[in-house]
TrEMBL record:
Protein known as: AT10B ATPase
Xref: Pfam families: PhoLip_ATPase_C
GO terms for cellular component: plasma membrane
Organism: Todus mexicanus (Puerto Rican tody)
GO function terms (MF aspect): ATP binding; ATP hydrolysis activity; ATPase-coupled intramembrane lipid transporter activity; metal ion binding
């Protein structure tokens, strides 16, 4: 994983080092942005989506994560002490971070199975 702070992101975006940042991020399974502004977080998500053409997932728990959650393909909001803004802007909401594994593995599998059945039914009805 890659952990990057706001100062470093500021240097990357102002110095035109996006290509080198993406080359480094390509070798990581996850990228964590800490001590960064909401604009920087959403810029990282948009940059990765646009340049690498991959599916992005953003997880946030407060109002400062709303733009990042909305910029991602899948947004997960964690309800807690910082308010409900992230939950209201997200695609999925969980109460604690520990429920993330179940959301991705169990409910993701169920969603995939339902989508596959729907596609088969779609072809059946059109044939």
């Amino acid at each position: 994983g890659l952990v990057i702070d706001g100062r470093t992101l500021n240097i990357i975006f102002q110095g035109g080092l996006e290509k080198k940042f993406l080359a480094l991020a390509r070798h990581c399974r996850s990228v964590l942005c800490c001590r960064s502004t909401p604009l920087q977080k959403s810029m990282v998500v948009k940059l990765v989506r646009r340049q690498l053409k991959v599916m992005t997932l953003s997880i946030g728990d407060g109002a400062n994560d709303v733009s990042m959650i909305q910029a991602a393909d899948v947004g997960i909001g964690i309800s807690g002490q910082e308010g409900m803004q992230a939950v209201m802007a997200s695609d999925f909401a969980i109460s604690r971070f520990k429920h993330l594994k179940k959301l991705l593995l169990v409910h993701g599998h169920w969603c995939y199975a339902r989508l596959a059945k729907m596609v088969i039914y779609f072809f059946y009805k059109n044939v």
